[in-house]
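Homework help thread (please don't just give me the answer)

Our assignment gives two proteins as sequence + structure token strings and asks us to describe the second one. The first is just a warm-up. Here they are:
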Amino acid sequence: MRITQRTIQKLKPRASRYVVWCEDLKGFGVRVGTSGNKSFVAQYRVEGRERKTTLGRTDKLKVEQARRMAQSLLGSAARGVDEVQDKQ
């Protein structure tokens, strides 16, 4: 599914939280909580370790802002740089 503002609005809460992944940008998605809260997430692998990080809530970030953040993060991961680990 391509993640757009319209598709995010259509996502409904379920009994357990779930992630809808973007078909255009591998590793970029929207997590939907049981309460209906929605957040942009990015998932990637660096040096064999899988990492998932929250980019921000969908009501605070626009889709294109989150997509650019994910592209930057995923690009760094492809070069072997773990930005999330570096921030910690």
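The one we have to describe:
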Amino acid sequence: DGSVESIAEFSVIAAGTPVSLATDATTFASGDPITVVWRDAPGARWDWIGIYPRGGDPLVDSYLFYVYTDQSVAGSVVIDESGEGDWPLPPGDYDAHYLLDDGYVSLASTQFTVTK
């Protein structure tokens, strides 16, 4: 009769496709929002973006800031005062990591710098 009983979105990504991660710029002034964009991610329930000092290893070092990706295989988040952690980021060099399902396995990373 043309009625819809249920709809479920899904995505298909070729096996072995790496996650892509980038920021909207490479340098930000302290306190400026930082947009992090990803694509080809697994989209697990608790995937998240973690911000670490440059060279930090998520398996060993503590994150400075984080925000969840809301199960999106492609999308963006804004790193600003609405997230969890130290804000504003002080001047320095940082890595953003796409981390899998509330764990510390980094599937992709990108670098950025915060200035005064």
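TA reply:
I won't write it for you, but here's a hint about the kind of observation we're looking for: The two ends are 63 Å apart (CA to CA).
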